[in-house]
User: Which sequence fits this backbone?
């Protein structure tokens, strides 16, 4: 009788796990998340590039069926005194599948309206371009956070982009497990730290890494949420768990404001 009860319990647990998997799948497929970083020669050029992206790029990507496009900028005031990113523009593009990622640029070039609207970008002289360099990373959305979401549309909203580098792919996998199976992502949500996305880096620089973005109504909301998180007993227990030791050797933290046309 006891053995049958144990087996029944195991079946029940397995069934609940299955329901959990189906619930994740019901939330939508895991997106392919592209983040492009443009480095401009001045703040004025940064602002001009942002205007082109708002007016031309976001509508063109929407015509391709790509939604929730984010355009972001930063400066010392936004980024807690760090002016390192003030001439950069960050563009977040969530793709439903690999074909969308592979075909995006070709479709942009074939979009007559985009080419017209983006004339300030394409018409700039080679000696004086709107941006100097562009880099790109490709991420895969976490199973427990499969799609990009807008978590707030507050006028003073702040986006926090964080990159966790690991020494090895094993430590990177363990850090992802800490967020998902370990429950760190659930603690984030409980503390008011709304995830715009969580993704594992597949291509780009500084590999291996996981990258995520949080959204807050304003700076005060961000500070309050992080204070709650740091003091949360579940986070303290996770942090002390030896299996998660040395999972991230470097963390990059960038605070951003959305452009006027940003959909995030």
Assistant:
């Amino acid at each position: 009788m006891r053995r049958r009860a144990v087996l029944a319990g195991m079946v029940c647990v397995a069934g609940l796990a299955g329901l959990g998997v189906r619930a994740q799948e019901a939330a939508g497929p895991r997106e392919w998340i592209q983040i492009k970083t443009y480095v401009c020669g001045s703040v004025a050029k940064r602002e001009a590039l942002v205007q082109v992206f708002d007016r031309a790029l976001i509508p063109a990507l929407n015509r391709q069926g790509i939604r929730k496009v984010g355009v972001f900028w930063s400066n010392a005031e936004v980024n807690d005194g760090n002016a390192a990113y003030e001439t950069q523009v960050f563009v977040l593009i969530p793709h439903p599948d690999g074909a969308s990622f592979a075909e995006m640029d070709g479709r942009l070039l074939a979009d007559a309206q985009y080419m017209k609207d983006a004339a300030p970008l394409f018409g700039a002289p080679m000696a004086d371009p709107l941006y100097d360099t562009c880099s790109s990373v490709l991420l895969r959305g976490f199973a427990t956070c499969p799609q990009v979401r807008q978590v707030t549309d507050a006028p003073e909203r702040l986006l926090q982009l964080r990159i966790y580098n690991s020494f090895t792919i094993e430590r990177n996998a363990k850090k992802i497990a800490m967020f998902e199976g370990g429950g760190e992502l659930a603690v984030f949500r409980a503390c008011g730290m709304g995830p715009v996305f969580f993704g594992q880096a597949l291509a780009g620089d500084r590999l291996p890494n996981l990258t995520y973005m949080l959204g807050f109504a304003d700076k005060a909301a961000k500070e309050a949420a992080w204070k709650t998180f740091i003091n949360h007993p579940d986070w303290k227990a996770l942090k002390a768990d030896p299996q998660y030791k040395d999972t991230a050797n470097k963390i990059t933290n960038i605070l951003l404001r959305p452009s006027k046309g940003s959909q995030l």
